[in-house]
Fold this protein.
Amino acid sequence: MWDRHDPERLEQRIRVERDGSITALSGKIEFGQGIRTAFAQIVADELDIPIERVNVVLGDTDQVPFDFGTFGSHSVVQETPLLRKAAAFARHLLLDRASAKLGLPAEKLDTEAGAIVGGGKRVPYAELLDSEPLAGTIPDWVALMPADRRKYAGRPMPRLEARDIVTGRATFVADVRLSGMARGAMVRPPTRGAKLRSLDDSAARTMPGVIAVVRQGDVVGVVAERDEQARAAAGAVVAEWHVVPVEGPTAEVPMRSDADVDEKFRAAPVRLAQTYVLPPIASAPIGPSAAVADIRAGGATMYVGTQRPFGVREQVAKTVGLPEKKVRVLPQITSGTYGRNSAADAAVEAAILSKGSGRPVLLQWTREEEFAWSPSRPEAVLEISAGLDAAGRIAAWRYDEHTNVHTAAGLDPQVLTVTSGRNAVPPYTGFPARVTLHIEPTRLRTANFRSLAAAENVFAIESFMDELASLSEQDPLAFRLRHIDDDRFRRVVERVAERSRWHERPGGRRGRGIACTVYHDTYVAQVAEVEVSLSGAVRLVKVWCVVDPGQTLNPEGVRNQIEGGIQQSASWTLREELLHRDGRVINTGWDTYPIATFRDAPESIDVLVAGDEAAPPTGVGEPGAVPTAAAIANAVYAASGARLRSVPLTRERVRKAMAV
Amino acid sequence: MKLALTVNGERHDVDVPPNTTLLSVLRDDLGLTGTRYGCGRGQCGACYVIADSRAVASCLLTADQATRMEITTVEGLAEGSRLHPVQQAFVDEDAMQCGYCTSGMVISAAALLGRDPRPDEISIRDALAGNLCRCGVYGRAIRAVLKVASPS
């Protein structure tokens, strides 16, 4: 593309600044997964410089190379080798320059704490910049720092932003303050896609603090000096809407179709068919969507929380009629959004308000708007039937996933397979399978959500594996191991069994369940222990998890991500259901959409990071959340005999299943 | 209306519309953006401040009501460059992910330790039950507060 940077150029990746500090550049975004720290670790190691002197710039579209977006926990995977190579190349060039300057062969020189040393001399990096900045195509041959000289990567380390966060100094999107900045509030239609029929803003315009009532197409909002004034005036705008029903797409994608599935199923001596059901749920970030837009005739600056800074640039440029290169997007620290930040809603709205009022505008959605207008995780109905042979092995597997679209990326079957169909194909081997994805229409706005469809599919698959084991009187752990032929997968399953002492069953009203999966080459296995009360209330007591994400840069960061994924997934499983009618979300507050609190947190979440150091690093932001629902449901069965095939596992549902 | 507030030990004079919330004054008039908006209904804890030694939701107090209280925000906990023990423990335990809810958690924990220097785990869970966290750092936050409550 005409203005897109080439990511393989050193000057787009690493800058040695005049004060000798290092700037590392990436289009990836930090939202709590610790990538700023991980990137600083590898750059500090390769350039042999204290980590305090490495500044990581993420997502500033005027500075960083083009990036499609931060998705699927893949930031570390994709960016680590590139940044590492870039930093190593920078060190190589610095050694060359010092060699020329000192008249010593490069082999006689070394690096130490941000300087070149050798021949009794010490030249700080900054003194090697007089001719020109470091530049060039990053070659493949560049030698990396040997592992025994790495000081940071692979060691636990607190997040670089930690101090700013605990003191309140960290600048989240809604904390940006610009000179002359006004506040925005939107006027919402009854349902998405509604067309504006008429607008009466005469009362709103005369209210205190109001600067402008802005309309562009069917988007209407108010700009005022203060937040409360903007909201009050937005409430006084009288808009009439023409409701146009919007419905999501329909598609059918065969994902796997082995020969003889139906014959083998019919011939199997033991057969089982079950259906699993999951409701839609909300991303429910603690900080609602926000954006600051400063749109001027000559150019625009956007302060946003986004996973796709270049995508926001494109959308905002189109919305306000500026060329893309005149729009600078500066991603800020943002509330975790778990996939929802793929959409640039607040940014586009803030841009419209800023352009229409001639002022920089901060728009922060209300809690109600966040629930009502954000995309949600789609609902899912998973039908599985399988047969077991006389030896108790799976002989045939048939799987139909019914869900709504998980992404706005289109209906290409390949895209659907890895989004709405993610993890629909079981990770087990030794049998023929047929897996079909059915995309059903919905009026609810659905889109990217943490792990896409994997959490739903793995809930169904791992619950069903337990049911098959139970039906054939096999231990759930042993039954899984019989169908695993990948050594890394086998290892995480065996290790979680060891750590949780799987074979020692807790007594009383307690029980344990196991679940495991392979998510984008990250291997993860979990055991959950629950207590089920007489009336069916489920308390999550403990969780054990073993994860193999390949080579591990920051084990403490991995542990934090996995723990968080488990905690969030436990909340989805035990509490959450988004209610909607005709595309409108009904529960739009924490009182009607309760999530897990401090009182619900398990006694312990024991995470063992057992990465295969010979394997490339894989993502950890999502996999932790994937097996938890099934581990909990299987534990509820072990504790009470209640087999729950619908989430959330409410007291009423559990009690009813116990009584049978 | 003209108001005088005491925030983090300093007096601030502001002129704001009637019924302006304390949260709005902190963020928009005093520049103390560490106190965050989460729901506007006192249900999430992101906007907690210490008001006369109790953790309260600043979105539910009017600035006028707050004139009669001593307000401490997350910015007022550290002494110079020395972090409050709770802040230090949150850093040490990596008890945060996105960090949006952290201010409120730190405030609740500091208020708890102010009235009970040795709380047990149940008291900690109760005191922080009003602070929602979506990233799921509850376990780490409990450990951090326990560490301050019972230093080894």
